[in-house]
Each structure stands twice: as structure tokens, then as C-alpha cells.
Design goal:
Layout: H1 3-16, H2 21-36, E1 40-41, E2 44-45, H3 48-73, H4 75-87, H5 97-107, H6 117-128, E3 133-135, H7 143-150, H8 157-165, E4 169-172, E5 181-185, E6 192-194, E7 203-210, E8 213-219, E9 225-231, E10 234-240, H9 243-254, H10 259-263, H11 269-272
Antiparallel strand pairs: 1-2, 3-4, 4-5, 5-7, 6-7, 7-8, 8-9, 9-10
Helix pairs in contact: 1-2, 1-3, 2-4, 3-4, 4-5, 6-9
């Protein structure tokens, strides 16, 4: 390998050192890959044979040094490297993915799935009304919860038990056409963050309640869990989190007789959160 290639790999090794080595390496890797797509290094165009040789050297380095180093600490970091390479069409290391995903699942197994009556009703609804009730397979691991916890957004155990039963579902109003969404559990990979505002702390947005409605969860300093009603991404009201109660209400919304009942009547989110008229804004 020539001096340019050795400099690139030595730079990778330097990035891998330190507590945030995985993120630093991932940023450097993306920068190098984007340049190599144009046969470039540090703004200099390489002859194609030299660029091909460097691309092969980078992939060999990732396979032989990066993936073993990262997976020894956190298999998810190694998977993120594969994700980044795949994003740019570099897929020759995809054979490594099943092993890494199995290691991640083994370290972060899902809890015992929830077995609430509401979930049986959800299953029956998906069988009887598949166009209005779509349920997903159970989550394969709960690393997502660990990543959120490290970011200061823990999730309640009862919610993880729900994900262990279904990694997301979507409900629509059976009586209304065209499609009127009424409630969904976001897939674990799509959980979002709601920023702190109006006296509400940062929180994990795990549910959608229909157009412009989002529901998020957080734990207060007394370890109590709260469900927050957000309209157009702004917090409106909160109440203690009771997932079974929330699911019962969502299933009732799916069977609402009219759109008016969903929007303004007893099956509206304002009614569920005891929001006074005009308080939503």
C-alpha cells in the first residue's frame, strides 16, 4: 500500500481511540467513503487503480480491525458501521451483519411480552379489519431503549413489554373513509425526541394520535411516568401513564361512529386529557 493509503488507515486507527471512538470513526469513515466515490482523497483525484486499491483496503480494515474492536464493546456500534457503508452502496461486508445482530439481541433481549386483554382485542381487530388495524412483529431486541436511556430518555418497563408484543401498530377509524388515522405505536426505530418547552422536560415521542397529534412519555424526579398530549409538536396537557387504559381508548377511537366523535366528542384527545375548550390553541 502506498503512503496515501497508510495515512488514511492510520487516521482511522487514531479516531477509534477514546470513549467516543465509534462516533469519531463513523464520521471519518463517511467522509472518506464520500470522497472515494469520486476517486478522491483529501480533495486530490486518484488514478482509478489506486482508488480501487484504497477502497479494498478500507473494507479489509473495517472487517479485520474495526468490527472486532467495536463489537467487543458494543455490537450496535459495529452494526452502525455496516449501516453507513450500506448507505453508500458498499455492501461487501453484509455477511457480517447476522452475527452482529444476534450478538446485540443476546445482550439486549426483549422482556416478557405484555399479555393484556387489549392486545388480544388488537389481534382480533387486525384479523377482522386488516385495512384498519395493522400490527407489526415483536421487537427482536431492546437496544433502542438502552440508547435512549443513555441519551436521558428512559422508557417505562410496561412500554418495553408492549414492544415485546408488537414493534409498532397503526389504527384507523373503521367507520370513516377515506383513511382516518386514530392511533399508532411508533416502531422502536422511529421513536423521536420532543424538546423541553412550556415547563415540560425532554421526552420520548412513542405514539401518534392522528393528524397533528403526538403522544410522548417521560419520568419525573419522583420516578412517576407521564403521558403528554402534543398538538402540532407543542405540549398541551399530561396525565399519568396507564398503557392499558390508553390502548382501550385507542381501540374505542378505531370504532368511533363518526369523525365528529373523534374530533370533538367523547373520543377526542381533549376529552381523554381533560383539556378545556380552547386550551389546545
Amino acid at each position: 500500500m502506498n503512503e496515501t493509503g497508510r495515512a488514511v488507515l492510520d487516521g482511522f486507527r487514531a479516531k477509534l481511540v477514546g470513549p467516543r471512538g465509534a462516533l469519531a470513526f463513523l464520521d471519518d469513515l463517511e467522509s472518506r467513503v464520500r470522497q472515494l466515490l469520486a476517486n478522491m482523497v483529501d480533495g486530490r483525484v486518484l488514478p482509478k487503480p489506486e482508488a480501487d486499491e484504497l477502497r479494498a483496503a478500507v473494507m479489509d480494515f473495517v472487517r479485520s480491525e474495526v468490527l472486532p474492536k467495536l463489537s467487543a464493546k458494543n455490537s450496535n456500534d459495529a452494526i452502525l458501521v455496516l449501516d453507513k457503508l450500506k448507505e453508500y452502496g458498499w455492501t461487501s461486508l453484509e455477511a457480517e451483519r447476522p452475527r452482529l445482530e444476534q450478538a446485540r439481541a443476546s445482550k439486549y433481549p426483549p422482556p416478557t411480552p405484555a399479555s393484556w386483554p387489549e392486545l388480544q382485542e388488537l389481534k382480533s381487530s387486525s384479523e377482522g379489519h386488516p385495512d384498519f388495524c395493522l400490527v407489526c412483529r415483536p421487537v427482536e431486541n431492546v437496544y433502542f431503549a438502552e440508547a435512549l436511556r443513555e441519551d436521558g430518555l428512559p422508557l417505562p418497563e410496561q412500554l418495553l413489554a408492549l414492544y415485546a408484543a408488537h414493534d409498532g401498530f397503526d389504527l384507523s377509524c373503521i367507520a370513516e373513509l377515506p383513511h382516518v388515522p386514530v392511533f399508532s405505536l411508533l416502531p422502536s426505530a422511529s421513536i423521536d425526541e420532543s424538546e423541553s418547552s412550556d415547563g415540560y422536560p425532554r421526552r420520548a415521542a412513542c405514539f401518534q394520535g392522528g393528524d397533528e397529534v403526538q403522544l410522548s412519555v417521560y419520568r419525573d424526579l419522583k420516578k412517576a411516568w407521564w403521558l403528554v398530549y402534543e398538538y402540532e409538536f407543542q405540549p398541551v396537557a399530561k396525565k399519568p401513564l396507564h398503557l392499558q387504559e390508553l390502548l382501550r381508548f385507542a381501540l374505542r377511537r378505531m370504532r368511533a361512529p363518526t369523525f365528529e366523535a373523534l374530533n370533538e366528542g367523547e373520543l377526542s384527545w381533549e376529552r381523554y386529557f381533560d383539556v378545556a375548550d380552547g386550551e389546545r390553541g
